[in-house]
């Protein structure tokens, strides 16, 4: 026990002695949490809306006014030709082009159908879908307006079969504030990145510099050495989580409906998984460079397949299978369940079990593959 | 010059000798682009929803069928009472519950008005938002189909042309992003580490007392990585063309030149990092911790920059990846030429010069 104590002391000294690293461990993640949490929104607004009004009638102007009064569209000055508008789209200055054809008003007065030409920049397919939905809503409203006018003037309501309206209500996040959703998730990422990178690099660094041999010839046991190496990072991970939670509460006012105890209990086990992966990487690499490349590879996969930025349900079946091996996925689920839905210990049991088994497996493998002899 | 070539050759030996790193260098970007090209999508797809149908008449069944047949939703279950909603959400699978009021069909006929309540699990506001939009448009279509005077009478229709990506594939959005991230991180990480390594091992001093000029030392370090990154870029572009069927509407030569420019930007950023960092560990943590999330989040790779708060839109301008993503999308998908992307190109050139300028200024010939 005393040996482990000294080892831990040595590790802490080494971490805190490196003045270049301290801001990277503590300041960088916090700054990122504060800034980047604001970036992650799929909300589509300020759509740059270019239009060509060939008709120039009172009806076409009424339609354009409808778009102008919508909060989603940012109307640009009218384009004189489709070509000019399209050039704007190529430059990225226009998201949507609407072309109101000649005879627009006359066709409507003659009780005919008329058609608007829409061109949507669809490189971001999801945004394009939302933009089209907004436009359809406005056009539908406009149609209902016309229908009402004609039916009033004809005094004929026989064709009117009724309207269905939808009242949406959003649970757990009534204002659809995406920060509530992102802050816990990004906090999870930062805790994971710091602990994985630090632990992944640590032992391999001693290997590369040659000091590992010195430790190997001491009577320190394998288990003592590993515990001594990993314990400091475990503490740092929990410390980072604490700072992040306090900031989430103070600055973003993120609700914390569930119990802190549950969250911390889960995190203590979760960090073990990450440290185990780090140790495992350390064992199978010769240089810090190799260790970092591998850590980076797994980190990018873990991040992008965690369901944090893009929903897991949207992935193909085989990719969803892969996400079951992604520890971050479980942590993201747990943090959201506990903080936003107020889930208790029993609600997170499935994730807790998986993480627990994961921790035992990874650490078992890592300790098994660690050899005192080079 | 001969000395310089000798030095570059030494660097190549270093890289080739480390087979494991070499394998990672080429294997990982390929694995990543394949994985993400197929796996990441921000479109909602077969989201599980539940119905609470208190009317169970012909109208509600018709609407339910319409929703179930859409590619966006799949029915998870039917609820019997409103009290079940909470439990269903806590479980986490069902993202929205659609609640038809009592006597839905009758109200619609008699009063000309009926309401559907849509309860969405908004812990993920992005998904909740998309669900609302798609449900709205399904119901609107239904409204349109039952109202005869709209079918026969005057009406504005829309003909939508989805430019550049008619099938709305997520791949078109994500492949340029993944390509950028890989090039950026690999290039910046490789150079920063290899220079910091010489410092840490003490061999930098040996290089500095050699007759090579300091800038030659740095240049010699970078040249092999330029070649490696170019090979990586070629592989990625080939994969995106042949596997993901990404079109290259514009000129391939322009795409190549711009990629080389971006690689130079990333490498010079790597050099800058290495002048600040004393150890490999610091260099790696800066290039990994400092670059990974900002590049993923602020480059427009996943999240549209136009929707971010204004301060972040301004900050996003200093991320080189943002400009490169605009360039790739322009060339590959929109088919534009230099006339449309000269601004982005100039910005990247400016950034490269800026990084190199600061590095030369901060570069110390003597080690402490």
SSE string of chain A, helix = H, strand = E? HHEHEHEHEHEHHHHHHHH
Helix content of chain A: 55-70%
- Global outline of chain B: elongated
Instruction: Report the portion of residues of chain B in β strands.
Output: 5-15%
Radius of gyration of chain A: 29 Å
Strand-pairing-aware structural class of chain B: alpha/beta
Count of β-strands of chain A: 5
Main β-sheet description of chain A: 4 strands, mixed
Number of helices of chain A: 14
- State the low-pLDDT regions of chain B, or none: none
Chain pair with largest interface: A-B, 131 and 128 residues
* Main sheet record of chain B: 4 strands, mixed
**Sequence of secondary-structure elements of chain B:** HHEHEHEHEHHEHHHHHHHHH
Which percent range describes the beta-strand content of chain A?
5-15%
Query: What is the mean predicted local confidence, pLDDT of chain A?
Result: 85
Could you walk me through the main structural features you see in this protein, from its secondary elements to its overall organization?
The complex is a heterodimer of chains A (374) and B (368). Chain A has a four-stranded mixed beta sheet, sandwiched between helices. Chain A has helices at 2-17, 21-36, 58-69, 82-90, 104-109, 125-154, 178-209, 211-216, 222-250, 260-283, 288-304, 317-323, 327-341, 349-369; strands spanning 47-53, 73-75, 96-100, 113-121, 163-171. In chain A, strand 1 (47-53), helix 3 and strand 2 form a beta-alpha-beta unit. Chain A is elongated. Chain A has 374 residues and is of the alpha/beta class. Chain B is an alpha/beta fold and 368 residues long. Chain B is built from 16 helices and five strands. Chain B has helices at 2-17, 19-39, 58-69, 84-91, 104-110, 125-146, 148-152, 170-201, 203-209, 214-242, 252-276, 280-290, 292-298, 310-315, 320-334, 338-362; strands spanning 47-53, 73-78, 96-100, 113-121, 155-163. In chain B, strands 2-1-3-4 form a four-stranded mixed beta sheet. In chain B, helix 3 links the parallel strand 1 and strand 2 (73-78). In chain B, helix 15 runs antiparallel to helix 16 (338-362). At the A-B interface, helix 2, helix 5, strand 4, helix 6 and strand 5 of A face helix 2, strand 4, helix 6, helix 7 and strand 5 of B.
